[in-house]
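Lay summary. Proteins are chains of building blocks that fold into shapes, and those shapes determine what they do. In this project we predict the shape from the chain. Here is one chain we studied, written as its sequence of building blocks.
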Amino acid sequence: MDKQYDFCIRGAGLAGISLALELSKTNASICVTDPNGVAGGASGTPIGLANPATGRFASKSWEAELCLAALQNNLEFIQEKTPVRFYEASGILRPATDKKIARRMRENFESTYWPNNSIEWMQETEIKAFHPGIQCIGGGVWVKSGLTVDIPTYLNSSADWLKANGVNFSFEKNPAVTASITVTTSGVWSKNSEIWSSLPLIPVKGQTLLMQSPDPLSFDHAVSALGYIGSLSSNRFVVGSTYEHEFEHEQIDKEGKEYLLARSSRILPDLISRSSIISQWSGIRSSTPDRMPILGQHPEEKDHYIFAGLGSKGLLYSAYCAQLLSDYIIEESELPREILLRRFIK
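And here is the predicted shape, written in a compact code that computers can read:
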């Protein structure tokens, strides 16, 4: 590790691996470091959804089309390098759970431009016919453009390709790496760096359950309501996620399991009652006061950059934000004000 690199990326989750993929297009020398390995932190959640219609009322996320296009390009590029299928353009069904939510969801749907009919409104009867056994009140939306991704496999497959194409990785605790530019991409743990200690990164604990149905699943789309249910298997699926702003430890716990079972049972009661728990997972993701990522150059340490705060939309935002940061560093292009570091650090 005594080599001088052009870039050192500190973090091998969604942010770090996505940025390494972008920077690798420039023929720069790159080293990615992470003591927890690839997808060892919050990006290790077993299944994630790229959902452009987010929140309780299915509001359109920031730069939804650009984010989805960038992510899908990365997924397709890496998928070509491995026989292991790690994503599907599954679509995401978003049933409302009460009449107020249904009304607000429909207002958002009707007042928002969705290109190419990427989202459709469905009446309650249509949703129940589309997905027998699902609980729904008042209708909901069918997000045709939504993606289901096995994030750890995606990131590890990306890392394998990066290694084969000259990118070095170090999983030591304190690697001695010398680089012209250092980009910190380690989520909420970015605050452990003295120069980033003032960042307003908010830790949020998320837990998921990996479950198994005794019979093949009768649906191949994802469901997002009171959490999410996603699968790339015939009879295994993931239930997630908790949003714990106050927690005493980072490990899985009984309370998280019971919370996930209770909420998912309200949407698909028959499936949950017949299925067994295989494993449970937990991780700490970083949110921000305005729930938008933080990207930019340190105001004093000019060779240090930050890429953090992806929050619950990390999968959706990761590839597009990596493109923006790569262009910002190399071509000195402007970053969108919504994600710019200086909104928090002057």
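What the prediction tells us: The longest helix spans residues 314-330.
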